[in-house]
Amino acid sequence: MPKLPEADLRHAARFRCYVPAPDDPRVAGLHEHTARTFAEARLSIPVLAEVVRQWRESAGEPYVGITTDGRVRHGVYELGTVPDAERPPTEAMLRAVEEIRRRTTREQWQRLTYPLEAPQWRTWSNPEVLLYDNGLRLEEVSDPTADALLGLVRATLSEDGYAVVRHLMRLNGFLGEVTGMTGVMNPGSYQIAVFGEPSPDQPWGWHLYGHHVCVNALVAGDRMAIGPVFLGAEPDSTDIGPEAGVRPLGVREQVGLSFINSLTPRQLSVARTYRVVRDPRMPEGRVHPVEERFLAGAFQDNRVIPLEGICATELDGEQRQLLLAVIEQYSVLLPEGPRAARMREVREHLPETYLTWIGGIDDEQPFYYRVQSPVALVEFDHHAGMYLTNPVPARFHIHTILRLPNGNDYGRLLWKSPS
Fold this sequence. Notes:
- The model has no long low-confidence stretch (mean pLDDT 95).
- The chain contains 10 helices and 12 strands.
- The chain is globular and about 60 Å long.
- The protein has 419 residues and is an alpha+beta fold.
- Helix 3 (90-103) packs antiparallel against helix 5 and helix 7 (250-260) packs antiparallel against helix 9.
């Protein structure tokens, strides 16, 4: 059985006082909805409708990639051959695809698969609202078919990475149970699609997306890219059952705190841009109505995000290792070999790596951090309640993301030459 982080029973039930009552406006009248009827109802809300309009507009833009100044830096990724020990698990992935073929009808297979350059690849999203109906939905296919689809995810990811993904999907089901919205949020409320023709040497990949779990993976010969990856949870653990107290994203929280608390007062003053997550000194728009402090979430493929905070050149050796540990936690989905190749790439650009921090630095206050380099962008953010009723960000609602800036999200540089 793959490992999950250690259980933290001290805080397992801290979300309970924020579970909405059945007549709370957040959940009242929603218990009979399916994902599809819920999307129709939700998109009639003006604020959300405007956000979705902006997202869809962004999805229609030609892909460029996240940059610091609007200009893509070329040549920052390793694109050559790699040692055999660092090759992706392509054979296992192809066997998983054959199992999917056996478990799907012709119509399902056609619905599941897209050309490599299909625009659907960029229309993943992490809200519980179904914005784009890509591929097959796990809850709408038979159990053997769903198992086969998840088999491709398992064959692609590391054991620990797959365990985290599945645990977060179950936490989504737990949120559905405590809010009475299991038709909208459950362990099977996820879409999966395959892009390109599965091959041992040509580029192809897949994405899985839904509430709080979005993974994009591509293999191309002896190279692999996994990103964008959004992982989140509300609440971030259950307080009942065999997984009580297990916080699959708790490690990302703790590595960030370990780094920020290693800084000297002078270093902290450079790294920490705001002392609280909703600081009144923030410029208008810095806290988004849906994404909060997040900048690189869904539909932000071309966002310009300037560097902020402290540069790795201002750190001592131990602090630099802690910074690398933060980034490595966001590479846990990669199998061991590709992860080694990925971290070598990250280390090569360490002198150009920055971390910025917003919020508390203790064991209770919420916070946000972003680590940014030419080849990696990661964000961590504590959020207010969406279905739980906490009005301000709390430690038990977490959003995280990994991006491959300068044009390599979706592994595009592994199959599409820079223009």
